[in-house]
Amino acid sequence: MRKVNAMRNSPALLAMMALFFCSNAFAHGDTERPLYVAEGGTDEGQCLSPANPCATIGFALAQAGKGGQIRVTEGAYAIEKAEDLFHLISGVVDVNGGYRTPGKSKFLATGDSVLTGVPYEYREQLRGRGFRIVADRKGMDDDKIANTDKLMQLHQQLKSSIPFTPCIGGSAAGLPCEQVDLLSHVGFEDISATPSAGADVWGFVDLNTGREYAIAGFNNGTGVFDVTDATNPREVGFIDGEDEIWRDIKVYQFFDSANDRWRAYAYVTTDGQTNDGLFVIDLSGLPHSVSRMSYTSDIASAHNVYATNTDYATGISITGDTPTLIVAGSNTGNGSYRSYSLANPASPTFVSGGMGSGYMHDASSMVITDPRKDTQCANAGTHCEVLLDFNENSFEIWDITVASNPVQLSNTPYLNAGYVHSGWWSEDKQFVFVHDELDERRSGLPTTLRVFSVANLGAPVLADTWSGPTNAIDHNGFVRGNRYYMSNYTRGLTILDITDPTNLVAVGRLDTYPVADSSMFNGAWGAYPFFHSGNIAISDIDSGFYMAADMTRDVPQGSLSFASASAAATEGQAAQLSVQRNGGTAGSVSVNYEIVHATAGSADYIVTSGLLNWANGENTNKTIDVTAVNDGINEGIERLLVRLISPGGSATLGNLSTASLYISDPGALAGVGFSEAAIETTESGFGTLIGVVQRSGSALGAVSVNYSMTAGNATAGTDFQGATSGTINWADGDADPKTLEFTVSDDGVAEIDEFFEISLNNSIGATIAGSASLNATIRNSGVGPAPTVPPPTTSSSGGGSVNWLFLLIGAGLYGRRFTRKGVA
């Protein structure tokens, strides 16, 4: 294996920089080793040994990691700060008192510890954790009392959901903000499984329906939420998991030609003391249900998971090649990355030889098509895929074009490294943004984000360092256009303008953890900015997950977006996608575009240049010209996705930055029909029935069809809510799926199953093709339909036989909506 070291000619410098590396895995914030506090301790170091404890609870809280524990001996301890009190009672860090030290080798929980400076309201809550409160408000200054009360009110408020609140005067529902609106907040109390801590978040756009879903990790499992209406998210299902704080999720979506529909799977890893390993969630039952596959994992735990060669909005393959799943930081070996083939997406299979050389904490990847693929990669053909490996001490770049034969291209350390945690790349693929999770703590730095030029993949160079206004730790970050969306722990979501990657500028934020901006492992864990709507999902360790709107993109240079969501062409003819400049027109601006293959491939079209330009003061629409190739094959309507990327001149990407191009066979006629003839859910809970109407054949010309309720014993307005008649319209060039949504009412009456039928009629510009009617059943039993269990299938991933056991979680059971504090 060829190994290229970016600093191979400077061994002295390497030796010097090695002094800054963290070799102790427990120095990272993700540790479950307990910290110790005793009256005779000293507030220095990391408090990891009973023989060398801290002196105060406040100091120990500042050292604790996610899922951490603090053990306090008998004695008296003052809680000096309101934020320490908040952290003490929040439960994210497990703090317990009453330990005795018969020797310095272990603590025994046999007594109690006395706390002062704690309001009496928390006496009973803390008594069960080995603490006795001496509550005397005369000994607490007025400011501390006021701050404590304010923080406790916020703590209670964030347990339940918050409705849409715009950012006005620097606040959105009590959350500090700047140019970011709160669309909704889903609190732990309003999630069916009532988790107590949040983990990472991901999402995807279901191409069967066009609906958007956030997939959020929690300490007790993984929740799937319909966020198509981001002001009113709906929990579709919750997949239980072992109780651990660390969960990560990625998605792969592909077209199942045999069934003429898209299928999607989510891949979830869990770290800590767990046997969850890697598990697979089948998302193909959406919009009504999700299920966990009975997949046998060959690992017990892993810190992270990543799907290479995928479009982050939809999860589909970028190049048409089968993506590779990368598992990082597993319990196997030294935690180096492991590659899994997704040739059978329901059962990832380990790729022999597809492993790194050292522990990987997180990953990202880029598909390189510029000249670097031929001059700097090892296995390139039409493209080169490089993996970014963030491995505690440095970040490495690997050529993984051939997954079974990875070649390391570079290994890049840097000064003041605390813990090289994660990173992402600019859309022009020339820069990588690197997060260090411990440099703020260890080196006393403010929030620090490093930017490396990767013009030379074999020798990345530090191009810039951005410093934030507080000591909050930067955790994860992602790029959309010229905006960087960073989960900034105690500071919440931070948005950076990366138009000039060597001069980053903070332009927006939403503080999901308004308690403090310190270097603690609380607050925002992850952010997902890739929805086609432009909305952002944020996961918070302490309070659930949020949907937000980025308002920073309203700039004098304007925002660039498609004029319509789709266009159409017949094979042998050309189509145009129109791109508009909205808002300001200051300066010369530009935007690139790229094609993502959905059901169409590279042989189905010819496209011109990938760059659009506007002069100073110009707002004329520009066009992307695509010629559909006549291949002489009768194959039905095909689809391409066209994405706007890398805006230049300080213009931003608008919400509609992805559009569809539909290609039809010559002479094909349009048809419309329901994608399924029957759907069902249960009455209990706040279930939702969603009927999907598809356009087939051709997207040329305007089309409409009427619908009406034609049969059933369910009563509209009583058993369900929703329009039972109306007209569905498609504009010329539009073949996006349309949906009819019905909210099921739980009347609490024992009765037989009910149904209603919706039929299509009076189509204009199209024939009725497929199913002309939809039978919607409301089951009274509170139990969803019995799953169909296919015969056992053998998996080569982890050995043994895999039975496809579908654990259906129906929308009728968990289809909660979050429109205000509490459940609507």
Which sheet architecture does the biggest sheet show? 6 strands, antiparallel
Q: What's the total helix number?
A: 8
* Rg (CA only): 27 Å
- Protein structure class: mainly beta
Helix content: under 10%
Structural description of this entry:
- By secondary structure, the protein is mainly beta.
- It folds into four domains: 31-157, no CATH class; 171-550, YVTN repeat-like/Quinoprotein amine dehydrogenase (Methylamine Dehydrogenase, Chain H, 7 Propeller); 559-664, CalX-beta domain (Immunoglobulin-like, Sandwich); 671-785, Sandwich (Immunoglobulin-like), CATH 2.60.40.2030.
- Helix content is 7%, strand content 41%.
- It contains eight helices and 60 strands.
- The strands form 14 sheets. It has a six-stranded antiparallel beta sheet, with no helix packed on it. It has a five-stranded antiparallel beta sheet with strand order 15-16-17-18-60. Strands 42-44-40-38-46 form a five-stranded mixed beta sheet, with no helix packed on it.
- Strand 6, helix 4 and strand 7 (131-134) form a beta-alpha-beta unit.
- The chain is globular and about 85 Å long.
- Residues 1-27 and 782-824 have low confidence and may be disordered.
